[in-house]
Design brief:
globular, GMP Synthetase, Chain A, domain 3, 37% helix, Rossmann fold, six-stranded mixed β-sheet, 2 domains, three-stranded mixed β-sheet, alpha/beta
């Protein structure tokens, strides 16, 4: 039997549906999905099997105009993920079309892709009429020589099987890169932190979610088969700590319950989750916070 395996980078603007597509392809939740932009900070690899092919998806942070150090680290990770992949899939939202952000991506794509093939996936097709889709497809293919174009709805699953089959056929021949039963190469500690961060992001509003980070400080395997997980939520200001805790600690308690329930489902066992909130005014400037998120800490402002 000839096996195939390779890396596929999913790129696009924030909120284009990359995490949703990754989760759909893998069949499990390995990347956090929220209605907020810029929620994927690290390159998360999800592993899917299609026939004799192993597809390793790199879900990159959304590509946007960076302003802060964290933004720049995220954008560098996104382009780095594309440059390291065997194949690139660009996601564009059908109802938003060719935005300024998509224009910027198209301008840089040839340099990053080199001789790699790039597929176009027009996502959220259920939001527009078919004639608008055809026009958008033509416009995008006039601007870049895409190897193939797919019309999909990552959320509903339309067209995603066809995309996965095509990707499987495009993978280079070679041995599988991960064990058959592995769905992600992120350490469990990091997946657990991401799940808690997702719940915080969903619960809170405005700027706050981008000024917090979650780290799994301790992971203890218990004799009864359960796991005790201690996590710290770092915020930059005392006022943020108050918002996070909520009245009589209700907000952080609700977040903890939601995160614990999802962790128990993911790990298929009982979880004891303990959350602490700490103020670290400069966490956005600390290199160890970046390495914890799988990002590169770059000097300079």
């Amino acid at each position: 039997m000839t096996t195939r395996a390779g890396f596929i980078a999913l790129i696009g603007e924030p909120n284009a549906g990359k995490s949703t597509l990754l989760n759909r392809m893998v069949g499990a939740k390995v990347s956090i999905v929220t209605h907020k932009v810029q929620t994927t900070r690290a390159r998360i690899r999800g592993v899917a099997i299609e026939g004799d092919s192993q597809l390793v998806f790199v879900d990159t942070p959304g590509l946007f105009q960076p302003r802060r150090r964290l933004d720049r680290a995220m954008v560098a990770a996104a382009w780095g993920g594309a440059a390291d992949a065997d194949l690139i899939v660009l996601l564009v939202e059908a109802h938003r079309g060719i935005t300024e952000g998509v224009e910027r991506i198209l301008e840089n794509l040839a340099d990053v892709a080199g001789n790699r093939r790039v597929a176009l996936a027009i996502n959220k097709i259920d939001r527009v009429q078919s004639d608008a889709l055809l026009g958008l497809t033509k416009d995008l293919n006039d601007r870049y020589p895409f190897a193939e174009t797919f019309m999909i709805s990552a959320e509903k699953g339309h067209g995603t099987d066809h995309l996965r089959q095509w990707l499987a056929g495009e993978m280079p021949e070679g041995p599988w890169l991960y064990p058959e039963d592995q769905i992600a190469d992120l350490p469990l500690r990091m997946i657990a932190a991401e799940m808690t961060r997702e719940k915080l992001t969903l619960r809170l509003h405005q700027e706050l979610p981008y000024q917090l980070t979650v780290e799994t400080e301790k992971w203890e395997e218990r004799k009864d088969g359960s796991a005790r997980i201690d996590q710290v939520v770092y915020v930059v200001r005392d006022g943020h700590k108050g918002i996070l805790l909520g009245k009589r600690g209700e907000t952080i308690k609700a977040v903890g319950q939601a995160a614990r329930a999802e962790l128990e489902e993911f790990l298929d066992r009982k979880v004891h989750l303990f959350l602490q909130v700490k103020v670290r005014p400069n966490w956005l400037e600390e290199s160890e916070r970046y390495s914890e998120m799988g990002l590169e800490f770059k000097d300079g402002n």
